[in-house]
Amino acid sequence: MTEKVGVLGKKASQRSQRTDVERVVVTPLPTVYGEFRAYGYLDHERGDEQVALVHGEPGAEGVLTRLHSECLTGDAFGSEHCECGAQLATALRQVADAGSGVVVYLRGHEGRGIGLLGKLRAMALQAEGLDTVEANLALGLPVDARDYGVAARILDDLGVRSVRLMSNNPRKREALVRHGIQVAEQVPLLIPPCESNITYLRTKRERLDHHLPHLDAVAHVSS
Ligand SMILES: [Zn+2]
Hints:
- The protein is an alpha/beta fold.
- The protein has a single domain, classed as GTP cyclohydrolase II (Rossmann fold).
- It is 34% helix and 22% strand.
- The protein has nine helices and seven strands.
- The protein has a seven-stranded mixed sheet, with helices on both faces.
- Helix 5 packs across helix 6.
- The chain binds zinc ion (ZN).
- Pathway: Cofactor biosynthesis; riboflavin biosynthesis; 5-amino-6-(D-ribitylamino)uracil from GTP: step 1/4.
- Belongs to the GTP cyclohydrolase II family.
- GO terms for molecular function: GTP cyclohydrolase II activity.
- It comes from Streptomyces olivaceus.
């Protein structure tokens, strides 16, 4: 048996007792936001390839952290249906500006865990007037099927014990705590709404308990 040895020269089993999520590689990743290191992981349980971007030397406590749920349409295409793309860019910029931090990019989280095609089908129903919660339910799909266990294991592997979590979603905080990562602070990640996403954002606030106080200032968004 050969054991996989990462570029840091350590055996995966020496880094974490929870070896179902294995660190496979670390590589420098220069970005428009600053210099990051990309940590690549393989989740043996689900078969997902995961990546965490680390800037600077975050340490163990109070690490500025974003758990970003994969959103192809928002992150890559600049979709204004949701605010994911702007949230990802803002999180990377804030981590770089802070001098250190972590952005965990969670694969398998499309459409709050219903997959890319499920999300596109839900978007088609939203174009017909359903809200994001009703659309998932109309398709017989869960409203939120995301699991944050892998994110906690990645943070554990990185030596992070407590985070300042960039999120408006109280369920992310609760999930991390449940998986053994402390949340010292929840840092709002508020993106100014646009005409295309104001209804979606209001639904997230009213039906999914997201903290989005900045929506109060937006009575009507005109084009
Ligand atoms: Zn999105």
